[in-house]
Amino acid sequence: MGASVFAGAAFWDKAASGTRTQGLFSLESGADEWRAVTDGLPDPVEVRCIARRDASTIYVGTQVGPYRSTDGGASWALMELPCSPGPDAVVWSILPLNDGGLLVGTQGTLIYRSDDEGMSWRLLSVPQPAGAVQMGFPLRVIRMIADPSNAKEIYAGLEVGGVVRSLDGGETWTDISGGLMTYVEQDAFKSRIGSDQEGMMDSHALAISPARPGMIFLANRMGLFRSRDKGDSWEFMDVGRFSPLTYARDVIVSPHDPNTLFAALSIAALSDEGSLYRSQDLGETWSRFDSGVSMESTLMNIGPSPSSPERVYCAARQGQVFGTEDGGTTWRTLPLPAGVSGVYAVACA
Question: Is the separation of the CB atoms in 183 and 222 below 8 Å?
């Protein structure tokens, strides 16, 4: 029986000294215990993103580059990047394109494109946005999406770097963070560790619904934002009207209903509380979806099933995974093996 859920974790500097926090884990359909996935992967493996092209072809981003499985996750092979080995080979996002291409986003705001499943790579020219912030960690390409109505329209979220856009399949890129930077003039949108604009530049996730071409949803430190014009301007969605938690780590469009969004909301990057919210009207209203769940850390990632509208899984930073198989009526808690934390990714079949 094949794996129905994958979860990935990476090194986490806030974990107890000597704790092995990282790994890739799978859960077979109907099972309650996770299995470590190792065949072909580096030891130890750090996983910061998981992407699927189809039921058999799965990609994970690791500390040494992207890996691909063509057998549903049973075995893996490295697709070596030109920058490997080295710090810029740490992969934070992978986007399989409808035209057969593959984009990989790394630490250091590098984006590579392959048109032959990793046999060769081309480095794309991506500008660093004017509002990008220098923090205690390198900028990274944390999420990439393509507009379902036009595969040449691609957007990339840069952690503490804002958002960039390509309208020609990645050949040229434009900084579209200017509209986000205007919010920094208001005290409510200042979030300072090193500089006032950090919160608005602290991008975490992007989403586009096939129901609204050109409309981008952004999750960042300050909440949820929306652009109706491909990023030329941005509006605050004020999810705080519906949720006491507003730090937004993920936003996902349901693969089964283009009007349904899921959002991962918490207190902060490091916290003892998280929540999963759902909107069935493209973000106009929201309600809590994870009924009866007690999350003990920041909710990091959401993985709706591409095969069943009833199945949704999500993962919290310190090793909790939660899943529903009946559209949110009931949930089960599936903690990853002891010590695993620094969770960044979850995906299900």
Answer: yes
Residue 241 CB coordination number (10 Å) = 9
Q: Are 257 and 181 in contact (CB under 8 A)?
A: no
Using the predicted structure, report yes or no on whether residue 190 has a pLDDT greater than 90. no
Q: Which residues contact 291 (CB under 8 A, 6 or more apart)?
A: 328, 329, 331
Q: Is the pLDDT of residue 13 over 90?
A: no
Q: Which of 12-16, 102-106, 208-212, 246-250 is least confident?
A: 12-16
Place of tokens 């586009």: 208
pTM: 0.95
Q: What is the pLDDT of residue 312?
A: 97
